[in-house]
Amino acid sequence: MLRALAIALTLAMTGGGALAQTPADPLSAGLRADYRTVRDYFLRAAEEMPDSEYGFKPTPEVRSFGQQVAHVADDQYNLCAPAKGETRQAPYRDIETRLSTKADLLVALRAAFGYCDGVYDALTDAAGAAPVTSRPGARTRFGFLNWNLWHTWEHYGNVVVYLRLKGLVPPSSQPMPGMQMR
Fold it and tell me: What is the pLDDT of residues 122-176, one digit of tens each?
């Protein structure tokens, strides 16, 4: 009886043993999940801010909300292109220097995330460990995609402040659908 209880407890603590197997590519699966989370938060934040506030700057020396959106869109191409084995054909700050309206920036942001989606979706652990030879330095595909991930989180943190200053609740602080607040 004691042995059966110990086995049952072990299975419960480990998620059921064989049922809780690690995915085939755990590193790329984790990176992909984190990327999708920040992508979705950032898109929702960009959608939530009113068009009239896209020029808002908390202080004169920082980017406006719209410039933050444009910068993140630009860097989806700048950081995912090397991981994809490509070279971005546009200038480094192309979107940030050309676009400023909410409508234009949302189109550009969705397209930029769409470009990166393909890179993250196709990633395997073996492919992620491969060095990127198109850019100087010793970065792997994982290195570029991780750089993109933390950079997007960093700027999501910026836009969270902008939203809060305008009395808006950032997506990551909003209740999840179906979740009741107590």
Answer: 999 999 999 998 766 779 999 999 999 999 999 999 999 999 999 999 999 998 7
Number of independent structural domains in the chain: 1
CATH number at residue 131: 1.20.120.450
**Residue 21 falls inside a structural domain:** no
Q: Which of 129, 164, 143, 156 is nearest to 58 (CA)?
A: 164
Compute φ and ψ for 131, nearest 5 degrees: -70, 150
Distance CA(121)–CA(129), nearest Å, equals 15
Give the whole-angstrom CA distance, residue 182 versus residue 180.
6
* Domain that includes residue 48, residue range: 40-171
Domain assignment present for 66: yes
- Return d(Cα 57, Cα 85) in angstroms, integer: 36
pTM greater than 0.90 (yes/no): no
